[in-house]
Design goal:
118 residues, mainly beta, 5-stranded antiparallel beta sheet, 4-stranded antiparallel beta sheet, 9 strands, 50% strand, globular
Length: 118
């Protein structure tokens, strides 16, 4: 499932409903999404008991590596992860943020899209 194209993570959180009916709301707290500085990723879920949720970050217009973060359950359907994105001299990087819920037999989740300026 991919976020609505009109949602902009630099302005607000984005909401999707994944395959099993769980509603996920994803947000990058630092709206300017700075590079080489700590970022806070927040996830709200209609299911307060999700386990083994990861966030996979990777650029789509240049190979910048893949970064996998583990979400921590803060309770009441709130999950957080912290990470840093690398800098790039080209700028205008387009990123995918894949929220992955690892189930016993498969992985389900959502893809959120965002851009960084530098």
């Amino acid at each position: 499932v991919v976020q609505n194209q009109e949602c902009n993570l630099k302005q607000s959180s984005c909401v999707v409903t994944i395959e099993d009916g769980t509603v996920l709301e994803f947000e990058i707290v630092q709206k300017d999404i700075p590079l080489m500085k700590p970022l806070d990723f927040k996830l709200k879920s209609s299911n307060p008991n999700l386990e083994n949720i990861t966030l996979k970050l990777y650029a789509t217009n240049m190979m910048m590596g893949t970064y996998e973060l583990q979400f921590i359950n803060d309770g009441k359907g709130n999950y957080t992860a912290k990470g840093t994105l690398p800098t790039c001299p080209v700028g205008g990087m387009k990123w995918n943020a894949d929220v992955q819920v690892h189930k016993l037999s498969k992985i389900i989740g959502a893809r959120f899209l965002f851009e960084t300026d530098i």
